[in-house]
Amino acid sequence: MINRICIVGVGLIGGSLARALKSAGACKEIVGTSRNRQHLQTAKDLNVIDRLETSLSAAVKDADIVVVAVPVGAMEAVITSLATCLSEKTVLTDVGSTKCSVIEAVENAFGQVPTNFVPAHPIAGTEKTGVEAAVDDLYKGRRVIITPVESTSRDAIAQIQSMWEQVGAEVTQMTATHHDEVLAATSHLPHLLAYSLVDTLSHMDEKTEIFKYAAGGFRDFTRIASSDPTMWHDICLANADAMLAVLEKFSGDLKILERAIRDKDSQCLLDVFQRAKKSRDTFCNE
Ligand code: NAP
Questions:
Q1: Closest CA to ligand 1's atom 44
Q2: pTM for this one?
Q3: What is the pLDDT of residue 216?
Q4: Which of 38, 76, 127, 248 has the most CB atoms less than 10 A away?
């Protein structure tokens, strides 16, 4: 059993990890810290954390593992503060949605990437934020991607892998660059498209009518546009290169569809739709 885990940022992702670790009986004490005492008090009242600390150095003292679960845009500042108070014995990990930017922040803060830092990203979440939205089964059956660098200690990786496995997740490994490319395509681009579509429609004159008649498909497609705007702002900027590459590819493919509609090119439209249906049906049945 893990003796003490400190969670920096007890929101949806950090709070759900705390809840899951508690319900798995995997940790003796969970300490929470963030900027806002009231948020931490709520986390304590909800029994998500055992102890709250407003001082980062007090929070991480004697922790076996420190999990940084703050928005990607706040990672650099938090990690820079951590570098001044973290024991070498403590394993440091994060849950950020982009990995190259977090590794770079750690390298800047510590002078080099410490061997006991394990970059990680749980592929789980909802469009909600805050500790009130935290649940104990968020990670059951979900993947967690670990993106170690060459010098990352095997023992540290094993500890983080075990922590995630105890809350029901399946852990895989890949490089941070590959992670950022894959997630740009599968998560970051869809969020950008959902925000963009809803924004476009909300500017149209007949918008009340449009939203009034929006059916299930529209709700399914745009659910993620209810996600936290600041979080997705941070992710788009932190993963700019991979985002721009996939956006350019997508814009080109969208132009092909536009041309097919204008030219009444049935074959082109059917080819694209049939290929897409086959891919999605296969992936959803996996
Ligand atoms: P969230 O619910 O808004 O929680 C973020 C937490 O960070 C809050 O408890 C906030 O508490 C704290 N925080 C913000 N700035 C801080 C700072 N400068 N110093 C210390 N604490 C700070 O967000 P979330 O959805 O859990 O996301 C957290 C991380 O998980 C992000 O890096 C995100 O990319 C990643 N992630 C999210 C999802 C998802 O679907 N939501 C999925 C996978 C990974 P205070 O306001 O009290 O400071």
A1: 97
A2: 0.94
A3: 81
A4: 76
